[in-house]
Design a protein that fits this description.
four-stranded antiparallel beta sheet, 333 residues, 9 helices, alpha+beta, globular, 46% helix, 2 domains
Length: 333
């Protein structure tokens, strides 16, 4: 999830663990714990694109990371907060739950987490987008109410508990909606006599009303959207896989690793003479079938017999266009 959401979750967890003893300081350190796992994004400044993508939501989002670093951070905080009277073991407990709940929440997103690192298993339930205002803002509202109460006030615990319950309930609702929309997609594929091998479904950005599906139909992928407000059959657009365009590049180590990252959900395309690797798991920035643009695409270049992988840049206009298209499509077909 986005940084704000993880800060809110971490602060709320910190309040549960030590709020009664140290008040808002528990929220402060919980928010720090909720932020730390995402510092893995800094790796992009030190390693190549493929390696940085492999490391994202890897070790720092694992149970092992939480177990190893919680005692270190707990001890450090105990030295900073000597006057609090809180033992380092208690600070360790706060940091563990702040670190651990971060990847738990991330496992519900499309990217998922390697919670059981170093084992090669990524959890990605794909039932909530990485930014979802309906999850975050009610949670934040009750957290602010909590902060305004004295640390010994019963209302403080009540407001924080309500925030956790409301956000968790919403997360459960998104799982239910995923099941409902999955059935809609598969029923429409059956009704339209479309044969397929696999299907993945997930919500579109910032909402859980409009859902999208990637469908593996052999030598092509089909992508369709379904809004809970739809009244007409789902339209599935076709995107050829074009794996043959890779040529000798297909055997390169970086390409194999990129394919593994995308879990096999990718297409190859040309744009202005540049070969592109399109990761389908995160959808399209636009829904234009003539000139599609995927949220995550990588330029594939071969320079001096070395394969160079570069993530294509994203622009402000892309975000504006996708919001307009999403709003129009959410209202139903």
């Amino acid at each position: 999830m986005d940084s704000l959401t993880q800060i809110v979750l971490g602060a709320s967890v910190g309040e549960v663990v030590l709020g009664k003893k140290v008040g808002n300081k528990a929220m402060f350190y919980g928010a720090i714990a909720g932020t730390i796992p995402d510092l893995d994004v800094l790796s992009r400044y030190f390693v190549d694109t493929v390696t940085a993508t492999e490391w994202h939501r890897g070790f720092s989002h694992s149970i092992l990371f939480s177990l190893l670093f919680a005692p270190v951070l707990g001890w450090l905080i105990s030295k900073i907060e000597k006057k609090s009277g809180v033992r380092w073991q208690e600070w360790t407990k706060l940091m563990f739950w702040g670190l651990f709940t971060h990847p738990i929440l991330d496992s519900f997103t499309t990217w998922g987490t390697q919670l059981f690192w170093p084992f090669d298993l990524r959890l990605a339930f794909q039932n909530i987008f990485v930014i979802d205002p309906l999850y975050t803002f009610p949670f934040l509202f009750f957290l602010i109410l909590t902060m305004r109460k004295h640390r010994l006030s019963p209302d403080r615990r009540k407001f924080n508990k309500i925030g956790i319950i409301v956000s968790t309930f919403y997360l459960a609702v998104t799982l239910l909606l995923k099941g409902i929309t999955y059935r809609k997609f598969t029923d429409n594929l059956k009704d339209q006599n479309i044969a397929y091998k696999q299907i993945q479904t997930r919500p579109t950005p910032f909402n859980t009303i409009l859902w999208t599906a990637n469908v593996d139909a052999g030598n092509k992928y089909l992508i369709g959207e379904y809004s809970l407000l739809d009244t007409k059959p789902i339209v599935f657009r076709s995107y050829p896989k074009n794996y043959g365009l890779l040529g000798n590049m297909a055997g390169e180590d970086k390409l194999k690793r990129l394919i593994k990252i995308a879990e096999g959900w990718y297409t190859i395309s040309f744009n202005n003479g540049i070969l592109l690797f399109n990761d389908l798991r995160f959808g399209l920035i636009n829904m234009n079938p003539v000139d599609p643009k995927f949220a995550f695409s990588y330029r594939l270049l071969k320079i001096n017999n070395e394969v160079i992988v570069e993530e294509t840049p994203k622009f402000k206009e892309d975000a504006q266009n996708v919001l307009i298209e999403l709003w129009a499509r959410i209202q139903g077909n």
